[in-house]
Amino acid sequence: MLLLRDLSLRYKIPLRAVVLVLITATLLTAVQVPRERDELQHDLEENARLLGITLTQNLVVPLIQDDVWRAFELLRSPLSGVDERAAERLPFALVLFDRDLRVMASSDPARYPVNAEPEALPRFRGIAPWVRASPTLPGARPLVVDENTLALVLPVVADGVTLGHLVLGYSRDGMRARAARLVQQSVIYTLALLALILPLTWYWGQRTARPLIKLADGMAQVGAGLPEDAALDLEESGDEIGRAGVAFRRMLYELRQKEALEQEVMVNERLAAVGRLAAGVAHEINNPLGGMLNAVDTFKRYGGDAEQTARTLSLIERGLLQIRDTVSALLVEARPSGKPLSLQDFEDLHTLVSADAHRQRVNFDWHVALPDVPLPLPATLVRQVVLNLLLNALQSTPPGEIITVCAHITGEYLSIQVINAGPLIPPERLGHLFEPFAGDHPRGHGLGLWVSYQIVQQLRGQIAVDSDESGTGFTVRLPLCHEED
Amino acid sequence: MGEPATETGFSLRRRRTLQALGCLGALGWARAGADEPIRFGLTPVFLDDQVGFLGRWRWYLEGRLERPLQFVQRRSYDEILQLLLEGRIDFSWLCGYPYWRHRHRLALVSVPVYEGAPLYRAYLIRHAEDPHLQDLNRLRGRTFAYSDPDSNSGYLYVRHRLQQQGLDPATLFGRSFFTLAHRRVIEAVAVRLADAGAVDGYVWDVLSRRAPGITDDTRVIERSDPFGFPPVVASRHLAPTLSESMQRVLNGMHRDADGRALLAELALDRFETAAPDLYEDIGRMADGVA
User: Would residue A279 count as lying in a domain?
Assistant: First the structure.
């Protein structure tokens, strides 16, 4: 049954139509059969009466003249030379009784011999009272002798005097055979009709199912992305399916609008994140700058020997190197490119967040065990995901605690974990963590995790969060065989 | 039940009346014209239902007699006999019994020779699956089929035999009836309409050779002594020359190929001239029965 339920409408609708047609045909045949049988019986009675009347008229003279041979010829003639088919419609025996209630002649003298009494005749025992006492019984009337024989008893009358009786014995087998043949015929006709109607029904069913299937196909495309209007092959009609199609198009339009909006939000968020970074970086640059300016100022004011000069230059150099590192890390971040992810990107991230971490007196436990070769993942996107997680962790970690960062390759996946010793996230919030504006942190707007989730989805990876008393850990798994759509 | 004795009585009375009328009629119908067809009455003393054969025989006789010829068939021997006695037909192939009765008013033209002699036998037959029916005594209460009340083999002989054995046909048989043809007697016994029957032995023999399907279901209980074969007779009214021509043609049939072929179809050797005393045996039986 489950199998049937899962069947496509392409087959289900035509199948149902076919079943309906079959039921109709069966019912019609079933109604037809008893009707045919009644008709047959009526037909047989009519024929028996006609044959009987004709014979009784002709048997008057042989009865009067006691002409056994003539009577035999008359009784035999309707039954001789007929084929098996015709024999079914004819009596199996015609027996003429004379006034003494003995057989005068019969169509089958071997079974119904001359002079026999009605009680002695095979298959005719029941008719004896009819032959004997016929004046008190209604005239010609078919009567059932036993379950296999039907007999019609007709008086042979001349000038108001009953000279004898003619008995027409019909076999019910013959009638049954005819009925069976009629049923067979009607079944054959029905089958022939079905052979004609069924393909039509199938075609119709298919046509009914087609718009539904197209609609379902269109809807199925939604999973991978939003199909273009032009790519949809929906039938336009005023019925329910047509209306569903129109609603589907409108829904797609709205979904596309929403997607565009989300895209925009993502871009904005990226810019905002970059802005935040820039602020941090500016601060980072400012520190060495202050130091360097002080050194230059001191050097200008007091001059100095070679040792002093060398110390000042070294100070300036270290400050400049620090600035260069900071700027180079920022440069990659600000310019999305198809550059593949490498170990260097994790070092850049470390550099980018270390300033914030230092300020908050948070330490990193940095375990990046990656080979020093480019990985088949877009560096910019992965950096943004990890950066968001790091910034998020920084926000949640109280001073003096440690943030653990792990990155390694397991099988076909790059696995990244960011674990902070922050407070427990309540379970009811865990479920909504990746939704936009879900955060209630005073410093964030809650888009960071949502953007990370979107990017991980885009990369066909998984992101999960796990929180308990000891801290909160985010795990990202990204497939390495990922190919850009 | 309708035992033929009464029937026969009635027939005889009617016959006498008709005979008287016939004598009157014969005067009026003097038949002589050369273009008038010869009228030849047939009875079932042979297989007279072979229409094709009759056509060929008629064609043969017309050619030899140089006169048109017409076969006349009726339901019973009696009707043919009446026509003959009235002179409304010229010849007839008839049973020896009616010939003997009316021998003074009929002329013997020709007698068929069957298996070397102008003789045949009467048969009593029963159904093949009724082996106990071996003599007339066993017919008590049974159904019996006669051929024709004017037939020797199909009626007279059985009546004679019953009388010999002191049996009364009126009480012996449960029922008896006439089929008016030997072939039908055989058929009646074969389909068991009758338990036994009286039949022309020649017809039974020929049928058993030609259409054994019918005779296979019957067995001969008794064969009579030979009797004179049913003759071809002429009305006394007929011009002797025509009678002689007919005799010449019939007696000459075995001399030409066409005639022999026709005789072969009848299973006869030839036709020959015979004296009326050939039928004396029948006459004695008839006298005894009557």
Answer: yes
